[in-house]
Design brief:
alpha/beta; 2 domains; seven-stranded mixed sheet; 12 helices; binds pyridoxal-5'-phosphate
Length: 405
Amino acid sequence: MLYPKPLFFLILENTVLYNFDEIIDRHHTGSLKWHYTDDTIALWVADMDFRAAQPILKTIERVVHHGILGYTKPTEALYQAIINWHGSRYGLALDKQHILFSHGVIPSLALMMRIFTEAGDAVLVNDPIYMPFMNKVRDNGRRLILSPLTEAEGRYQLDLADIEAKIIEHEVKLYLLCNPHNPGGRVWTVDELEALLVICKKHDVAIVSDEIHQDLTLSGHKFMPFLRVAKGYEHKVVSITSMTKTFNVAGIKSSMIFAKDEALIKKISQQQRLSDEHDLNLFAYEVMASAYEQGGEWLAQVLTYIEANIELVCRFLEQHLPNVKVMRPEASYLIWLDCSAYGQDDQTLYDQLRDAKVELSAGIQYGDEGHLRMRLNVACPKALLIEGLNRIYLAFSDIKSLSGR
Ligand SMILES: Cc1ncc(COP(=O)(O)O)c(C=O)c1O
C-alpha cells in the first residue's frame, strides 16, 4: 500500500492545518482497535485513527518536561474552560459547583444507578443502544427494560407511547438516554427531549443523559443538552459527557458529570467519595483544559474530514452495494448499516467481513434491533477507508444478495 508522506500538520499564518490523510501504524501499541496480528483493517470501536490536536500534545510534552507528576487538583482555569465550552456552544449555563469529574462515562452511568435506583428496580433504555448501557443495568442487579427505537425516513425515532407504557407497566425508576444516540447517530431534537421530559416527570422517572457524542454533531443538526430542557426537574436529571470522544483521547480515561440540583450534587459526590472516585489523574486535567481552551480548530477540521468520509461511504455503497441501507448519522463518525439483504445470520455476516480482513462492529451486540446491522467507523485516513470499503465490497459480492440485485 502507498502511504501518503508523513506530514503531521502545516502551520499557515498561525493556523495549524492538520493532515488527517497520514496513516499512523497503531499495531503493537496496546490499541484495542488494532489488536490484530494480520493485516485486517479496523473500522469498528469508536476511536479515531488521527493524531490528537497539537495543543494537547504540546501540553503533555510540557508536563513531561516539567518532570513532576504529583497529586493534582482541577484548576480554576480548567473549570472556566469547561464552562466556556458548554456555554458558548450549547447555551448550557454551568457553574463550578455543577461539575463533577469521573473516570469514564460508563462508570458514571453505573454510579447513577446507585444514585437513582435500588437493586431490583427497573431501568429503561432504548434498543439498539451502545451495549454497556444494557450490561451495566444487569451487572448492577437492576431490571433491564427495553424500548425499541422505530425507524422512519431512514432515521431512528423514540417511540413515546411505548416508553410511557413500559414506564407504567414496570414502574421504571430511571431512563438512560443516549443523546446523541449510538448507534444510528440521531441528535434528539428539543421537541423530542421535551416530550420525553413530560413523560418522565409525569411518572417520576429520573433521566441520565449520556452526551459523549455531543461535540461530534454534524452540519445541519443542533445538539441540545438535556439539562437545558429539564428546567424545574433538575433534581432528577444528570448529564454525563467527556472530552475523550471529541478530541480522540479515549486512552486518557475521564469524564464529567453535570448536575444542577444542590442536594443531588451532594449525593453524587458523597457516593464518589465512598470509593475515592472523584480525583482524576494529572494528564486528564491538563489535557481537558488544553482541549477545551485550544482544541476547537482541530475539532472543526476533523469534522470536515469526517463529513467527507461519510459522503464517500454513502456514494460508494449507493453505487456498488445498493442493497446495504445506510442510516446517515446526524452526529458521530459511526455509520449504521442495514445488511439484511446479505444474510439471515449475524455471526455469518460478521465472519464474512472478517474473512475479507475488515472488521466492523456487529449490530447484534447493540440489542435485538441491531439484527443484521453493522456499525462502520469512518474516522480514519481516506486511503484506509477506501481499502476497507473495497474489502466490504468483496465480502458482500461473495454473499448472494437476498433481494437478487
Ligand atoms: C454512547 C457512549 N457512551 C460512552 C462511551 C464510552 O465512554 P467511556 O470510555 O468514557 O466510558 C461510548 C464509547 O463509544 C459511547 O459511544
